[in-house]
Queue: 4 jobs
Job 1
Amino acid sequence: MRTYLVTGGAGFIGSNFIHYLFGKYGDSIRVINVDKLTYAGNLENLRDVSGRENYTFIRADICDADAIGEIFRDNDISRVVHFAAESHVDRSIRDPGVFVRTNVLGTLVMLNAARAAWERPDGSYPEDHRFLHVSTDEVYGSLSEPDTYFYETTKYDPHSPYSASKASSDFMVKAYMDTYGFPANITNCSNNYGPYQFPEKLIPLMINNALNGRKLPVYGDGLNVRDWLYVEDHCKGIDLVMEKGTLGETYNIGGHNERQNIVIVKTIISTLRDMLPDSDPRKANVTEDLITYVADRKGHDRRYAIAPDKIRKEVGWYPETTFEDGIRKTIGWYFANPEWMEHVTSGAYQTYYKEMYSE
Ligand code: NAD
Ligand code: TYD
């Protein structure tokens, strides 16, 4: 039975990916989720898979070489999907050090552990073993000319401590592929949205604030552009690259869905108004009066936009969810799971681990 090691599986995209894997492969695979459970890790995201016999959660720090080495020695792992990272740009501006530790050193630990477990004495690797490093389009920097896009060949030009740390980790993966013939791929994806996203990121923050009648803080002039992708489409892209991609290659993932931040915020307001019944007392507060322009983010990248030509051509990936459907699904998910948001905002989600694992 094929065993996946997923790092950062208790976070937003990692937990969606674990759901995706079980949805697609069911009982024919095993999944080991390794997560440190920082503020961004939430085991409530995995409540419905936690009882499966083919799912194991291990609380560990990816910077802990002994713990990670032991996981590889104890398990016959042939797929690594590496999500674990510090992921929020604003936090990286306040405290870059933890981003270098987890994103750069943690990735190095993962590469060393996989190489030690997989490399044969003659330097070759078993045919079906793969390491997929999940990265971001932010490594390419900011686009200033209209109708220009990020290609896999675009020069890296990171600006924030977050994107600089992800760029460094990408280069380390590339170095392992070039130096040791290490069997890896890198995917660079645009901004994700969907269920289980921590409300420090634009879309869940705006949904939560609007529902609570709180101000909607838009940075700068609100005209920065991000290229939004529904998280399930990202998960499908990662799986397809692992199954059909050429080892050693990088694939950009994005669905040509560029929107200005202010347009996103206004779409959230109108969709909330459309979806809330008139009898819901929150509805009256959800208006554009909540929008407040605040000081701009330092070094704020103006525009990101992915050219997904290579992933479409080589592995047949395309996004299935339009933004109009995706935002309704996302808002519908937050409506259906008010206790998830309540636990995240109150901090109660952090006690779930103690209850589950009696620590
Ligand atoms: P997230 O912040 O929601 O989750 C990160 C997870 O990693 C958490 O569960 C956290 O507990 C865990 N983690 C952090 N430090 C760790 C450590 N030292 N050891 C073990 N686990 C640790 O992040 P996300 O939005 O799900 O992003 C996942 C990956 O995808 C990241 O590598 C990110 O760079 C990349 N990415 C994110 C986006 C996006 O829009 N969110 C877009 C492209 C790429
Ligand atoms: P974010 O979700 O933090 O993702 P990233 O910075 O990785 O792209 O932010 C998306 C965009 O929204 C970005 O241009 C910053 C902006 N933004 C706001 O205007 N207000 C907010 O409160 C947040 C969190 C983000």
Job 2
Amino acid sequence: MDEINKKIRRIGVLTSGGDAPGMNAAVRAVTRMAISNGIRVMGILKGYRGLIDGEIVEYDARAVSNILTLGGTVLYSDRCDEFKTEKGMKKACRTCQKYEIDGIVAIGGDGTFRGATDLSRRGIPTIGIPGTIDNDITATEYSIGFDTAMNTVVAMVDRLRDTSESHARCSVVEVMGRDAGHIALQGGIAVGATGIAIKEMPFDEDECINRIIHARMNRKRNFIIIVSEGMGTNYAENFTAKISRQIPDMETRFARLAHVQRGGSPTLRDRLVATVMGNRAVELLIEGKKNLVVCMQNSKVVDLDIEYALNLDKRYKNKMTDEQFAALSESDQKSMTKFIKQKKAEIAEFYQISKRMSI
Ligand code: ADP
């Protein structure tokens, strides 16, 4: 039978890499969409590790009851270096044969998608769904978990602001986002931060401190500075110390929100996006497609070739040489350049807005 037209009878679903609220909503959506189409669903535990070790449980419609509201991932997640090896990949393929898995939906980040490409190449059609709180997958405007994480940031920093106002303090808060400052930037705007430090934009420490001094003279009592994790190890602590030195009559404290940002019940947006993307991923497998990642572009759910998405990410993060870029098709080069320009412009605009608000 032509591989493209081969009927999908059983699919596997896994979550891999860093967990994100809303992954369960995606697992539920994949499961129910598949079952609605007469397809059996195998839950693969602990990401690619479970594929290697054969940790598989069959999911029926009830198996995913009540997980819509849960943070974390009921399938568990793991990092699995063995999967990157030839031996590990062979084991994973054998597990797929044993359980008669005709296709896989892999929910995670860039690393997860690289694994998905390897599986697709080995004849196991795989579709990716972006799940990471950092929203650092370039090809998609949105990844599952981002909204919940930002709402956590807002809830936590609002509390810090209450006490900072009482004691006329400055709070420097480090938020997650090693590769991208979206949580810091959008969360920072939402909490009314006086300064936002992200690696995508130049951050002038002295100008930020001057802004605090000026606003203090203008009767402002509390200050929130949001620093993205991507600024580097101890950056936020060091900046806290610098503010303390330069404004000695104001107490400045450092807080790292860390993993609280990863947990919690997913917000409406994350549940909704996860459900829509989960439906689409199964639809793509039914259509005989493979090696695609479901993305959000211009507020619409679209699908992109994983390789294209990974190249776009590399280009955006300056991890691609000019020679590698030149080797891509002309239309890919054009669309990537346009997309990256637009993405950078959006970040710059948010940044300018945040500055205007912090007087
Ligand atoms: P994320 O998916 O959040 O980016 P990781 O980078 O840790 O998280 O990737 C998750 C898993 O995907 C890894 O533990 C590994 O099993 C698999 N993976 C990552 N990179 C590759 C790769 N280059 N080839 C095959 N599998 C990979």
Job 3
Amino acid sequence: MNTMDKYQVLKQYFGYDTFREGQETLIDAILAGKDVFGVMPTGSGKSLCFQIPALMMDGITLVISPLISLMKDQVAALNQAGVHAAYLNSSLTAAQYYKALEYAKAGRYPIIYVAPERLETESFLDFALHAKIAMVAVDEAHCVSQWGQDFRPSYLKIVEFIKRLPKRPIVSAFTATATKEVREDIIDILLLREPVMVTTGYDRPNLYLAVQTPKDKFAALKASLDAHPDQCGIVYCQTRKLVEDVSGRLKNGGFSVTRYHAGLSDAERQKNQDDFIYDRRLIMVATNAFGMGIDKSNVRFIIHYNMPGSIEAYYQEIGRCARDMEPGECILYYSGQDVVTNQFFIEHNKDNQELDPITRQIVSERDRMRLRKMTFYCFTNECLRDYILRYFGEYRSNYCANCANCLTQFENVDVTESAKALIGCVSACRQRYGINVILDTVHGANNAKIRQYRMKDNPYYAVQAKTSPYRLRQVMNHLILQGFLSLSDDEYTIVRLTDASKRILDEGEPVVMKMAKEQEPAIKAASGKKQRKGSAAAVDLSAPDQELFQQLRALRMEIARDEQVPPYIVFSDKTLVHMCVAKPRTKAAMLAVPGVGEFKFGKYGERFLECILTQATP
Ligand code: ADP
Ligand code: MG
């Protein structure tokens, strides 16, 4: 057991001087013997909330974590910081596993990461029932909930396991996802006892948010990557095929790129993920299979080549951006086809085939509702951040100054004519069709559905031929958001009239919409006002400091190679930037740099000091 207080542990092992919001409350509660539940966004520092008490309590902390990569990473980081930690999962050979258990029995590890599947194995129980388990920390706790994004049945074993222990340990749970249902599920299923709850804000103010509707997505992507050659980021695509296509074209274009999707072999996926994490490849093109537990701190941009199916998924994916709290950019490329593909995914969701018909219907209704809210995100002219935070139940001012909408000039445009046409068309076809048919009709399209439904006979056919499909969709979404039209909840999402419809159609009420002044506002706002700058976190460094930064980075890479760990585990970019600014020349000064603890100083401090001394002395 450790006799240091929590501030000393924070400094000594992690190199930080101050706690972040929520951390202290949770740590104090655990040390007082209470269950806790931390709902904090990705990158906010949940790990420290269980790691610090683990180092201070008598007994072992078991950390349950869903992914092997995640465990490996955290255990590597702990060992780098001088903490003995181990993981027990299927990536170990039998010999390695028993060796680790043996060390665990001998009391070598205050922290042990374990996969939920292991909890019920005989060998593990044999250890756990005889060891002193002080706490079970459930990381990514949303995995216990069927409402969550990544339900894992093996997580249900946790409770059974805890029940079998001779003495109930403290149970702590942590997640970044928490809509109300998921939150309640976690407390109920894990049987948390009057947990001390901390819910910190969902906001990630350092992330710039934008939606763009490029005509040629690949050209837009290439232009964006060209403008920021040495930055690292993720490009999310909707399908494996698209991942292949986009990564292949980027590779041919000479970009430092790799790829990830469920169709690759385990070995290749692992290799590509490592290439990205170890900075050997800058750009990762991937499906949503990639990223859970990716703790790489210097991801500078996340581009969504397609719109994801829900705000939950989107926020989780962009949560991997800029975890070092330096500026990062999250750009979503929207196209109408994305909606169609997502609808297809919902209708053909294999996971749902096993559900009984009623549950299946509820689940797909919920998914359609989520998709609709995601689509509205792409069309709103209000603050994008505010839209997301409101979705998660947080209310604040409708202005963040760091999203495309807040940075775009808007003007009020009269769209009464388009609105009348859309509502009139819905009325004339007796409320029988979905959004796309209505839009195609008033625009005057000539496709199979239009012919099949004889929409050319509709009095509103082609009355808005001169208005762009994108603008018509904007107006349609506006009408739905304002309650002038509504959508049926079934799988056909039919456009219906509301009590308010007639105010526009018959009573001459005008419809005015806030529209961006330029034609393609988001792109201009993104490329004009908010340039992603130079390398990594070194955004505001002077030229000589930039050079020092590059030197320190090279040194870090060298060490990372020798020790076979990702560079950010040696020191984060942010820590290097601090070194460039503070230029510490003594041990004491070096220890004052955030991210430099005693242990790391002992390992690398002198080499970094030397590098700074030679570089910074004129
Ligand atoms: P989460 O699990 O909430 O997504 P992590 O625990 O992985 O976040 O922490 C994200 C980053 O924040 C890590 O690099 C971690 O070292 C850093 N961090 C955590 N707590 C602090 C703190 N008090 N001061 C500075 N950095 C911190
Ligand atoms: Mg975490």
Job 4
Amino acid sequence: MRGWARFFFFEACAWELLAFRARVRFKRNPLFNSFMELCIIGSGYVGLVSGACFAEVGHHVVCVDNDQRKVDMLQRGEIPIYEPGLEELVQRNVAAKRLRFTNSIAEGVDHGQIVFIAVPTPPQADGSVDLTYIERVAREIAGVLKPGQYRVVVDKSTVPVKTGEKVEATIRRYNHSAELDVVSNPEFLREGCAVPDLMHPDRIVIGSSSQRATDLMKRVYEPFQAPILVTDVNSAELIKHAANSFLSLKISYINAVSAICEASGADVEMVADGIGMDKRIGRNFLNAGLGYGGSCFPKDVKAFIAIAEELGVPFHLLKEVERINISQMERFLKKVREALWVLRDKRVAVWGLSFKPDTDDVRNSVAIELINKLAAEGALVTAYDPKGMGKALEYKLLAPTVRLASSPVEAVAGAEALLLATEWKEFACQDFAAVKAAMHTPLLFDGRNLLNPGTMRGMGFVYYGVGRP
Ligand code: UGA
């Protein structure tokens, strides 16, 4: 087996081993020799991956989704998203009858002593969080809870602080005899590595004011053998927004440093290595590039700003984090304009559409924003992405003049510049002699610092990175 194939093979084996060990631990532990019955409402990224991983360690899980088409697909073992390792996990656990899907909230709530809410919490125009779906689910749970049926209702979606209080009040308002506790249990998985993140979390946060609910939650997570932090509900809710905002801040910090590197001739990669070797700082999330995107960071930073504002404690630091994120793209485009002079009618190839590698998620993708800005200035863009093209077409996210290619090399045919916008490993392994030969002029703008500048220049490319000489 060669290079990447061997890497993926061993990675798959490692996951399998982790899951196996978790199952064995679960079965051997005398305190936890019985599985738990769980319900998860919402089969998006968080709900689906959580459901599959809970089933993998032995729990019996019913996932509820109001989209019947999605329910049918999932029940057949077909996955609506690309997430490494997820398809096998779902298929294995559906076959083992530990995981099933339904559109009936009554069936789910009847099955699960613990009911997880994992529905979307999209942003509103002013940046605050739209809690319509959470509120609706709370009312629906109230409508199906039977008298004497104790349930732990767990908020897994990313929600503003104090949402738990409102969920509990809503359920009690619509069902006076409801026996329940509401818990906050934020999820920290990343798209593209959601399965290993969930199987092997850094920490589990349980926000609860009830010992009974806390004990049940600990049983759910016992097989994962991760550190558990028990807090009050409000603190758990805040932890999620504070964590995502801090990671965004780290990215904006290094991006701001990258601008100083460009002005001074220093190399941001070396600076990041140098500061990241300090254990108090750490090297993760110090990769300079085109800025953060996706369905979490942009939304959560905005939401945290709005939450702080509403509580009367404006968070100016986070406004600067957002400003730096926007200016990073502008600085990159400026370099492209300076090199090509006029963009109108220039053939430009872009590698990358997804908001990050190993996912087909194109929501709030910086790559797509870049492409559309180029197209708006009249550039003739041809793009390629290993997984994101289907969804970009389905959601009609690209300007009408943008063409899609079937391979990285096809995308660069006749191009006057190549822009790398998402750091897929596939892009680093290209035959760059063939890439250069296919291009009209070998201008290479590496928006994610994926490639080695010396190697690329040695091959005859005019290489531009982010914050690198
Ligand atoms: C993020 C968090 O990392 C998860 O812990 C959290 O659970 C999730 O949001 C969520 O709230 O659901 P995710 O959005 O999947 O996960 O992706 P990340 O890997 O965090 O990347 C976010 C963005 O930051 C991407 O656009 C990525 O390209 C960018 N990034 C990341 C950088 O520009 N530089 C870095 O060094 C790291």
